[in-house]
Amino acid sequence: KMAAAAGAAAAAGLWSEVNRCGQNGDFARALKSVNKILQINKDDVTALQCKVVCLIQNGNFKEALGVINTHTKVLTSDVIAFEKAYCEYRLNRIESALKTIQSASQQTDKLKELYGQVLYRLERYDDCLAAYRDLIRNSQDEYEEERKTNLSAVVAAQSTWEKVVPEDLGLREATYELCYNSACALIGQGKLNEAMKKLQKAEELCRQSLSEDSDVTEEDIEAELAIIHGQMAYIMQLQGRTEDALQLYNQIIKLKPTDVGLLAVIANNIITINKDQNVFDSKKKVKLTNAEGVEHKLSKKQLQAIEFNKALLAMYTNQADQCRKLSASLQSQSPEHLLPVLIQAAQLCREKQHAKAVGLLQDFADQHPANAAEIKLTMAQLKIAQGSVTKACMILRSIEELQHKPGMVSALVTMYSHEEDIDSAIEVFTQAIQWYQQHQASQTRGPKSTVHLSLIREAANFKLKHGRKKEAISDLEELWKQNPKDVHTLAQLISAYSLVDPEKAKVLSKHLPSSDTLSLKVDVDALENSHGATYVRKKAAKLTGDNQQKEQGQGEVKKKKKKKKGKLPKNYDPKVTPDPERWLPMRERSYYRGRKKGKKKDQVGKGTQGSTTTGSSELDASRTASSPPTSPRPGSGAAVSATSNVIPPRHQKPAGAPATKKKQQQKKKKGAKGGW
């Protein structure tokens, strides 16, 4: 009895210690006291609960869950359901947390709050929205602002990921969190300018809120603003202001925020800006997307987008195996998604395997008919790149849901015209017009749609352009029937009938308006003063003064321009007949004998050192009496025949040229500082 009394007294003291430490927030010390109590009574339910709470407060969620699982007989789901679900939630075992909450016999307010968080992480936004509405309606405590913030976050997620138009919740945007969530919802709707204004307001509220605390530094404020600035940069990127967005993204990265999710998103967005350029920077940024815990911070669509960009970056950096591996993994995760197949096809095209790429796309189109249209458009593009325009047209015409679209009709007609297949082009027009006729007949019997009429007009113009007037007549008659006041269509119809049925053309010409009704009221002065009449006005300018008198009299005599005399060579001799071949290149003249190579006037340095070559002038054949002069001597009146070796005057050197050259060389020698 005395031992039991002593143990009870010790336990009471320990419980007092646990209570005091709990109130002070010293859970590490409280845990020590709880462990001592459990040594006295290992199955004490209250002590076990306290131990679990202390471990949770210290962040030891795995150990706390271990305590719960090892004492299942004592700690039943009714007793410890919230703590167990919370540990599973913090350990990112979201599905297990949901089961634990749903299996609880009593749904407490704490479990409902956690239930909303779990549904948000599971991206079940409709259920999450209903849960938070119920909580706000049935709760009145100091956490109402936090619940409204969570509610606005759910609405923003719906707008962003599910493209649901958010309803007005009537929340007063008094905090920067509410403003931020409202901006995200506007981004999801594509209202970028309004979203930017909301983010600027959120930034202002955040600065005001944090500046009130004297312990908060400017760095702390910038760290808190990082997520707002990141969203601002995203809006800039969507608006095409990539340079501004890139600058803001890099500023956020320099701050080194602790939110790995934010860093991953920013790094991914920078990679999308870089594309196939600056790949080394992109490879550095990819490391930020691989940080631990990123998969628990981002939505499924965000993670998927990051993986797609990794595959594309591998393709741009010529890592073919890595690209195939990533795209195959993505395809296994989302078999119906287009991007993995398109990335694989792009990689095959880079490897010049176009036929294999087309086959891959065809297999996907057969397996997923719902996405066949986009795949077939890509196939057609590949065929065009290969030069197979006709095959590309066949693929495009197999897309039934796009056959009648004006863009598709225009593309097919252009391609068939390029291939000079006019019959197929007309067939495309006919099928599209028939589709609109059937579609309109099944709905109403009213006037034809503008798209239908524009297709008929384009078909008629095309047929007229290619000489198919008989075929164009039915289209023109249909157009004129729809609008009898259309003079242009009537004129086209008369022109077409004039070659086929002149009598019919005469009958139709009676419907043309008379010349009186076609008289145009033109302001001549306004027309002359217009920008286009400037040149005409100059020609028609009024003559004044002497010019006017000359115009009235004999008229002005045009002055003849004097021709300038041509320049003659400096050593031109009028007594010498010019060479008739002077305009031909030297090589094409009859007296050209080619250059004499290897012959010099003085053979310097050919003998022994110090000796000179004598009699070189005697051996020079050019100085003999029998050789003709190289240029006519001054004063000689002899005529030079066209076949002689005399250089004509145009190519003669000036008399003083050699002496001038020597003087120039001497001047250069005086000014030179170095040797030759």
Fold and architecture overview:
This protein has 676 residues and is an all-alpha fold. Among the domains are: 106 residues, Tetratricopeptide repeat domain (Serine Threonine Protein Phosphatase 5, Tetratricopeptide repeat, Alpha Horseshoe); 85 residues, Serine Threonine Protein Phosphatase 5, Tetratricopeptide repeat; 106 residues, Serine Threonine Protein Phosphatase 5, Tetratricopeptide repeat, CATH 1.25.40.10. The chain has 32 helices and no strands. Helix 2 packs antiparallel against helix 3, helix 18 packs antiparallel against helix 19 and helix 26 runs antiparallel to helix 27.
Cα distance spanning the termini: 123 Å
**The CATH fourth-level homologous superfamily of the domain at 1-106:** Tetratricopeptide repeat domain
At CATH level 3, the topology of the domain at 1-106 is: Serine Threonine Protein Phosphatase 5, Tetratricopeptide repeat
Number of strands: 0
Provide the β-strand percentage band.
under 5%
The largest sheet is: none
Query: What's the overall geometry?
Result: elongated
pLDDT < 50 runs, ≥5 residues: 536-543, 610-676
Assign a percent range to the helix content: 55-70%
Second CATH tier, the architecture of the domain at 1-106: Alpha Horseshoe
Output mean pLDDT. 78
Number of helices: 32
Structural class: mainly alpha
Radius of gyration: 47 Å
Assign the CATH class of the domain at 1-106.
Mainly Alpha
